[in-house]
Design a protein that fits this description.
The chain has about 230 residues and is mainly α. It contains nine helices and two strands, in the order βααααααααβα. The chain has one domain. Strands 1-2 form a two-stranded parallel sheet.
Length: about 230
């Protein structure tokens, strides 16, 4: 076995126990891990996850959470006036602490929704296949196939998008804003690749270890597993 070689191994126990599951998994893998279809399928699946998270389920839950928190803040806003609290202290608590807590808690449903869908994909056995498919590509820049999912989650679940939106809306015309956001994300990807190449040539020199992973058969996700993983 050559160094840096990726190995795709199916679970031996599951194959012996149920040959039908193995045949079904092989048929699905013919599409989801095919030479020309693996990456398009992965892009489509992750695009669906992002749409469901940021445009439908996660966005709706975040809006609902924001409405509930606003009601609590409005209730707390009435109490200092009745208690004759100093206006500066009132502004500090209401506009500072409460607004900050609202910003954090309103993002929580979105993050939970994202991890919920990722947990479903992981429990079905698809994430292991994604790691295998992307390993050959990412290995060229010094990364492992296991890096792809954390990288994608980092694009959506950090605070970059609100900051990008605020800055772009303040300094650029509306017709260029979408293009600039895409450019900023692309710039971030390029910077990440350059930094990975820099580390590969300096701190992490040498041949990478072989990528060995046991790939289970496809299975329906269990509610308990998804709950624990998310």
């Amino acid at each position: 076995m050559k160094k840096g070689q990726s190995i795709f191994v199916n679970s031996g126990n599951e194959v012996i126990m149920d040959g039908r599951e193995h045949k079904r998994s092989m048929a699905i893998d013919w599409i989801l891990t095919g030479k020309y279809t693996a990456i398009p399928c992965f892009i489509g699946i992750m695009a669906l996850v992002f749409v469901m998270t940021f445009s439908f389920i996660g966005a709706a839950l975040s809006d609902l959470m924001g409405i509930r928190i606003d009601k609590v803040i409005a209730l707390l806003d009435c109490l200092p006036g009745k208690a004759q609290v100093n206006p500066i202290a009132h502004s500090l608590v209401n506009d500072g602490v409460c607004s900050g807590v609202r910003s954090v808690l309103s993002l929580l449903p979105t993050i939970v929704t994202m991890f919920f869908f990722i947990s479903i994909l992981e429990d079905t056995g698809y994430i292991e296949r994604v790691d295998f498919v992307m390993d050959r590509l990412l290995r060229k820049i010094g990364l492992s196939g296991r890096s792809i999912v954390p990288m994608l989650i980092g694009f959506g679940c950090t605070a970059k998008l609100p900051i990008y939106t605020l800055m772009i809306s303040a300094f650029f015309p509306r017709r260029y804003q979408a293009l600039i956001i895409v450019g900023l994300y692309a710039l971030g990807i390029v910077c990440g690749i350059l930094y990975a190449l820099f580390l590969k040539g300096t701190k992490y020199k040498g041949s990478p270890v072989p990528f060995v992973m046991e790939i289970p058969n496809y299975r329906f996700p269990s509610a308990k597993s998804v709950w624990i993983l998310s």
